[in-house]
Write a structure and sequence with these properties.
Elements: H1 5-14, H2 16-26, H3 28-37, H4 44-67, H5 75-82, H6 84-92, H7 97-120, H8 128-149
Helix pairs in contact: 2-3, 2-4, 2-8, 4-5, 4-6, 4-7, 4-8, 6-7, 7-8
């Protein structure tokens, strides 16, 4: 089964802040325009790190939704696993660009294991892992570039 158009397009749209952050690291004119037009929080590592924390927390909600589809025996574990990404962000994604960025990289890599668990349990759509692997690769690469450059 192919990835439905709506989730695919929305997932690609969700990559824009990560890609924007990388672009503003390498294009000083774009960074200057961004800072002057919409503010410094939307340029360089700031947009990537802040948005990464938001999205990793959002993924906890997605996984919680998958947990509701598990049978009564497996649901408690599913609910417990679903809150891990948000807790990870809360406890680890702070400090400077390097520490926060590497924490987010680890979080996005780690959530793939949770995605796989819910997918294998039949709680996630058949196409879920194809989408998550593709999107996670771009997110992780963007965050690594941010860490190295920022």
């Amino acid at each position: 089964m192919s990835i439905p158009a709506a989730p695919l397009l929305l997932a690609f749209a969700g990559l824009l802040p990560f890609l924007w952050g990388v672009l503003t690291l390498y294009l000083p004119g774009l960074q200057e325009w961004t800072v002057q037009t919409i503010g410094p929080r939307f340029a360089g590592p700031y947009v990537s790190l802040f948005y990464g924390a938001v999205i990793l927390s959002f993924m906890s909600g997605v996984l919680w939704g998958f947990a509701t589809r598990l049978d009564a025996r497996r649901a408690p574990l599913g609910y417990a696993l679903s809150v891990l990404p948000a807790l990870w962000v809360f406890f680890t994604a702070s400090g400077g660009v390097q520490s926060a960025g590497l924490s987010l990289v680890a979080g996005f890599a780690g959530i793939l294991a949770l995605d796989w668990y819910f997918w294998r349990q039949g709680a996630a759509p058949e196409w879920w892992m194809r989408l998550r692997l593709m999107i996670s690769a771009v997110v992780i690469l963007s965050l690594l570039i941010t860490v190295l450059r920022g």
